[in-house]
Amino acid sequence: MLDNESFMKFADAIRRKLNFDMSGYKLERMKRRVDFLIRKYGFEDYSDYLKILDGDPSKQREFFDRITINVTEFFRNPDKWEKFKRYIAEEMKVTPRGTIWSAGCASGEEPYSVAIMLEEMNASPINYKVLASDLDPNILEVAKKGIYDQRSLVNIKESLRDKYFKKLDDGRYQVVDKIKERVTFRRQNLLSDPFEKNLMAILCRNVVIYFEMEAKEKLYKKFADALKPGGILFVGGTERIFNSRKINLEPVEPFFYKKALT
Ligand SMILES: C[S@@+](CC[C@H](N)C(=O)[O-])C[C@H]1O[C@@H](n2cnc3c(N)ncnc32)[C@H](O)[C@@H]1O
Predict the structure, then answer these.
(1) 68 lines ligand 1 (CB under 6 A)
(2) Distance between CA atoms of 12 and 121, rounded to whole angstroms?
């Protein structure tokens, strides 16, 4: 039976076996995705699906691919990136070294965009670093390779493309080593793992849409604590933080919050 109660039991087993906690996510959305896989295999019960997941890395990979949506591109919302660059330039005047974190980085386009931006600003790679993390181990492998279809590069000017990508024989593009080396990738669950501290900026865009309100609120509080005073939080287009001042985040304009100085 694919009822809610059985799904909750399945979610509990996934937490124990795959160390992935679905409780912060919108239940209906998660259930729809898992049910799709169950039907694909012709099962009628979560327990049958659990049996084939257990100990089979390729099935586990498919499971994670299905429940996490990894769509992204370089410099997504280009006009916002212009603004982000200005905030970072301001911050650099008072912060001689710092880390910018792409939280929920998917296949890497976002953190590599940050690395390209920093390179264009002549920011030393020793002083200004990029951290990138995602829950999905498969997508992180894709990110580390840094190979993309032309489609992901739509927002990149030809001059930047020629400077920071090499064209492969199959027509795809790979980010050059200088850019790759600026980014450190790691697996991390935003809902349960600890965060670095004193960050200059955090980008968390198009990730929290899957989270329940309570999980979202907790996450924004954790982001606020992880930022240095004056640090910037760059969120997705439809994402708003209610009562952000309560957690020391000043809304500066749509998409951007700044951690209070005191
Ligand atoms: C749509 S992508 C966003 C990519 C990029 N930030 C952007 O806006 O283009 C969402 C990413 O969030 C990741 N994600 C979902 N839940 C997560 C969690 N609990 N912890 C870390 N990453 C998570 C997914 O694996 C996916 O790669």
Answers:
(1) yes
(2) 47
Exposure of 231 in the CB half-sphere (CA atoms within 13 A): 21
**Residue 106 Cβ < 6 Å to ligand 1:** yes
Average of pLDDT values for 106-110? Answer: 96
The pairing of strands 165-167 and 128-134 is unpaired
Helix axis angle, 57-67 to 27-40, nearest 10°: 140
The percent helix, strand, coil of the chain (3-state, each to 5) is 45, 20, 35
Q: How far apart are CA 184 and CA 180, in angstroms?
A: 8
Under the banding of pLDDT at 50, 70 and 90, the label for residue 173 is: very high
Task: State in Å: Cα 226 to ligand 1 middle.
Answer: 18
Contact (Cβ atoms closer than 8 angstroms) between residue 181 and residue 128:
no
Pair 184, 194: CB distance under 8 Å = no
Instruction: State pTM to two decimals.
Output: 0.89
Q: Say whether pLDDT at 113 is over 90.
A: yes
All domains in the chain, ordered by first residue: 4-67 (1.10.155), 78-259 (3.40.50.150)
Q: What phi and psi, each to the nearest 5 degrees, are found at residue 141?
A: -65, -40
Closest atom of ligand 1 to CA, residue 236: 8
Q: Cα 26–28–29 angle (5° rounding)?
A: 70
Regarding beta strands 256-259 and 249-253, do their DSSP bridges make them parallel or antiparallel, or are they unpaired?
Answer: antiparallel
Closest to 29 measured CA to CA, from 47, 7, 53: 7
Least Cα distance to 72 among 139, 141, 137, 161 occurs for: 139
Mutate to test the pocket of ligand 1, among 74, 130, 134, 238 (most ligand atoms within 8 A of CB): 134
Q: 20 pLDDT band (50/70/90 cuts)?
A: confident
